[in-house]
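Sample pair:
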Amino acid sequence: MPGSFCVSLSCSKDNTDKATVGFVVANAAVASDKDTMVFLSIEGVRLSQKGYADDIHEQGFAPLKELMDNFVKAGGKIFVCSPCFKKRGLAEDKLVAGATIVGGAKLVEFLSAGAPCVSY
């Protein structure tokens, strides 16, 4: 998929710096007209829940909730690892805007089309 970009994010409150920087990079990619996807896995899936990121604000950066909202408003997609989501017993009815629960095949499909990926 020419003109695409992936950010793989496995952190949330266990490493708020990585979670924040992941969405900073994702916003830069989507602002550069890249078809951009953030893949949330492991602890990162917690960011898919409404309210979870509300109190995450790393010094020197915009609040994480604002970064996530801006990313989706700009056309970015948030894919949430289904097995990771289920393992943590999270609620499908509390997904943030732009989030979709997917299997690993969706990530493989996106990357196999040639999308570069950075991981946090």
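The radius of gyration is 13 Å.
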